[in-house]
């Protein structure tokens, strides 16, 4: 039986064009209470490494460039 | 660029002289956490950065520092090409509340022509309550820009000088912009009721509802008893918002003769108005109002019922 291509998505999406983590910004990483945001070694941009999100939103609110979007699941809205 | 003893600050200073605006921007973000008074120079430097984002970021952090050290830079930032920077500078200036900032602000006011800058300076001058601001503020009451006139009214209102009352009354009655008229109407409350009472009664009939609301508020604050009949007329205004304020004012004035009108309002379809009417009847606490309050105990709106119970206790206490 063929295996389906594994598709996964995380609730915190970082717009890499806007993110300035490669310039030394760590605002979202610092505010995250669960420490689930990390710098992607390849791009130098922030990304969600572990999907343990509480949807608490400071990463989105504090991002200086509005690069972070938190997609709150429909049932939690 | 200057060197700093503090290695942390030096690191930020180095980043701030980077060619990459992104790195300069992040350096500004880090400035906030230094807590070093020397960092002010770097903020001023960043406020003059060629990159808009860096200036915006700097404008956001200015209130973390001693503003008097950068009053000049903030005033310069009021003429920034970017609106976010201008806004942040105006807000930071308004937060100064430092008498030392009055002098540079007044100088900048003298020479500024841009409306946005002028209103920012006036807003910053307002809480300083310096007498020297009176003359320029009075002059700006005739400015072509409504926002400038609005801020000028604020400055004059905070100065609370009786000699400015005629100018404020004139503005409240005849300014073309409703928000300016509203602000001036609200500013009249420092007067002696006899000086502005008649004007306030006239303003109860202003064409703009917010001015009418403000007039009722001001009458209540001044406790101008001669306005009772005008307020009673205002309780049949077209807009419930105005009626609500008029009813509030009648309550504050303790007007017994208005009780039948308040009773009508207590049966209005708009629950906010019923609430205000019951509140007023409770404040007046006259037995004539009791039947209306008793009826309101069964009001469909829980807020009205709650207030009715309070009003009953006031009536019982007064009996």
UniProtKB/TrEMBL annotation, chain A:
Domain 4Fe-4S ferredoxin-type: 10-42, 44-73
Any Pfam family the entry gives: Fer4_7
Keyword presence, Repeat: no
Alphabetic keyword roster: 4Fe-4S, Iron, Iron-sulfur, Metal-binding
Membrane-crossing residue ranges in chain numbering: none
Cross-referenced PROSITE patterns: 4FE4S_FER_1 (PS00198), 4FE4S_FER_2 (PS51379)
InterPro entries, per the entry: 4Fe4S_Fe-S-bd (IPR017896), 4Fe4S_Fe_S_CS (IPR017900), PSI_iron-sulfur_center (IPR050157)
Protein name, UniProt field: 4Fe-4S dicluster domain-containing protein
UniProtKB/TrEMBL annotation, chain B:
InterPro entries named in the record: ARM-like, ARM-type_fold, PBS_lyase_HEAT
Pfam families, per database record: HEAT_2 (PF13646)
Coiled-coil segments on the chain, per record: none
Record SMART domains: EZ_HEAT
Protein name: HEAT repeat domain-containing protein
Organism in which the protein naturally occurs: Marinobacter halodurans
């Amino acid at each position: 039986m063929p295996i389906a291509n594994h598709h996964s998505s995380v609730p915190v999406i970082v717009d890499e064009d806007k993110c300035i983590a490669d310039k030394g910004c760590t605002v979202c990483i610092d505010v995250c209470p669960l420490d689930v945001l990390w710098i992607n070694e390849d791009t130098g941009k922030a990304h969600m490494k572990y999907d343990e999100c509480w949807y608490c939103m400071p990463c989105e609110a504090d991002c200086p460039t509005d690069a972070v979007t938190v997609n709150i699941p429909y049932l939690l809205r | 660029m200057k060197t700093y003893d503090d290695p942390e600050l030096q690191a930020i200073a180095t980043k701030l002289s980077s060619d990459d605006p992104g790195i300069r921007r992040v350096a500004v973000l880090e400035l906030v956490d230094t807590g070093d008074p020397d960092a002010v120079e770097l903020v001023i430097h960043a406020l003059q950065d060629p990159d808009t984002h860096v200036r915006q970021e700097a404008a956001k952090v200015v209130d973390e520092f001693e503003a008097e050290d950068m009053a000049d830079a903030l005033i310069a930032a009021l003429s920034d090409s970017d609106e976010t920077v201008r806004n942040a500078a105006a807000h930071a200036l308004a937060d100064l509340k430092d008498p030392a900032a009055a002098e540079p602000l007044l100088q900048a006011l003298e020479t500024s022509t841009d409306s946005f800058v002028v209103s920012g300076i006036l807003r910053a001058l307002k809480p300083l309550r310096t007498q020297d601001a009176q003359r320029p503020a009075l002059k700006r009451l005739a400015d072509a820009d409504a926002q400038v006139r609005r801020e000028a009214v604020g400055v004059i209102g905070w100065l609370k000088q009786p000699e400015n009352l005629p100018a404020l009354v004139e503005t409240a009655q005849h300014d073309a912009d409703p928000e300016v008229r509203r602000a001036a109407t609200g500013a009249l409350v420092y007067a002696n009721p006899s000086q502005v009472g008649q004007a306030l009664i006239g303003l109860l009939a202003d064409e703009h509802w917010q001015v009418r609301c403000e007039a009722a508020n001001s009458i209540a604050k001044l406790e101008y008893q001669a306005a009772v009949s005008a307020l009673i007329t205002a309780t049949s205004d077209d807009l419930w918002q105005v009626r609500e304020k008029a009813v509030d004012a009648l309550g504050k004035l303790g007007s017994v003769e208005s009780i039948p009108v308040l009773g009508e309002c207590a049966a209005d379809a708009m629950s906010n108005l019923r609430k205000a009417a019951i509140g007023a009847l409770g404040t007046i606490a006259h037995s004539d109002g009791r039947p209306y309050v008793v009826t309101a105990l069964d009001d469909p709106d829980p807020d009205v019922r709650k207030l009715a119970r309070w009003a009953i206790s006031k009536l019982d206490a007064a009996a």
